[in-house]
Write a structure and sequence with these properties.
single chain, 18 helices, Serine Threonine Protein Phosphatase 5, Tetratricopeptide repeat, mainly alpha
Length: 312
């Protein structure tokens, strides 16, 4: 269920081209080319390295020492550790986060997932199940908790019940949600293993339509990047592609400092951070976007959930 695991391995050239195309798409939405305005202005700027994962992790750990009572600091550290495969360390950080923010269903389900991944033997440790139960008590719609509670049924031998729960989750899943394909694949695999017919029902079951808050920026009848834009981006050497992407992200942040009321740009920044595998920074963008636009909190959270931003 976790998209952060998929991002942890870094970007391919194709993924980089897709991200560049996404920037071009947003540029059409807001009236001018962000990629052109914010691209590095010199070879020296393009050559500036980004922080290594170990440096980013050290910075997050330092933040928890300087802000030990910040649930957000512990959440970001948990997300970063999870991305790096340190599931036990992620669970420890999430435990701190839920202690400081016990009413967050997303934090409880993230803790449960980290505990599952950290387990060396039990596929559903009791401590993980307790975290998922707490998440459901706070928000019965939490998709991660619902998914793993169905896993518990499957592990316990109730394969029909697990599949029924996964189908219910699929029906409640917004179209294009990052977990939809994995959820369908899970249903197919469990059905095949236990000789339960699911193909017909899968064909009929569709993810639900998006609510207005969930409609992506890129889906609002905005002209997309041209074929030549895509081809040019995909042909760039990886170093130049990375520099171009980093310049775009830096440009987004600069423009948001000047105009923090631009909700579309906050969404694009979250999307960019998630595509780059920078989940902690995506979570920070969500926090900053809501702080700057409290009236748009619902929309920002809905978009963040669609993107798989930790704690959304």
């Amino acid at each position: 269920m976790s998209e952060s695991k998929k991002m942890a391995g870094g970007m391919t050239r194709a993924n980089g081209a897709i991200l560049i195309a996404a920037f071009l798409l947003l540029a059409g939405a807001i009236g001018y080319a962000i990629w052109r305005d914010s691209a590095p202005g010199s070879d020296d700027a393009a050559a500036q390295p980004t922080a290594a994962p170990s440096d980013q992790l050290a910075a997050l750990e330092a933040r928890t020492r300087s802000e030990p009572n910040s649930a957000d600091a512990w959440m970001q550290l948990g997300a970063a550790r999870f991305d790096l495969g340190n599931f036990g360390g992620a669970a420890t950080a999430y435990e701190k986060a839920v202690g400081l923010s016990p009413e967050s269903a997303g934090l409880w389900s993230a803790l449960g997932e980290a505990r599952v991944m950290a387990s060396q033997s039990d596929p559903m440790p009791p401590a993980a199940l307790r975290a998922f139960d707490k998440a459901i008590a706070l928000d019965p719609r939490d998709p991660r908790a619902r998914y793993f509670r169905a896993v518990k049924k499957d592990v316990g031998g109730d394969h029909q019940g697990a599949i029924a729960d996964w189908f219910a989750l699929l029906e409640d899943t917004p179209q294009g949600a990052p977990w939809e394909a994995d959820l369908r694949r899970t249903i197919e695999q469990v059905g095949a293993i236990h000789k339960i017919e699911v193909a017909g029902r899968l064909a009929k079951t569709q993810a639900r339509p998006l609510t207005p808050n969930e409609i992506p920026v890129a889906a609002r009848a905005i002209p997309g990047p041209s074929r030549s834009d895509m081809e040019a981006a995909s042909q760039l050497p990886k170093g130049q592609q990375d520099a171009m992407i980093q310049g775009m992200v830096d440009g987004l942040e600069t423009k948001l400092k000047a105009n923090p009321a631009d909700v579309d740009r906050w969404i694009m920044l979250m999307r960019s951070r998630m595509t780059l595998g920078e989940t902690a920074k995506a979570a920070q963008a969500l926090k900053d976007g809501i702080a700057a636009n409290p009236g748009a909190a619902g929309r920002l959270k809905a978009q963040a959930q669609m993107l798989g931003v930790p704690g959304a």
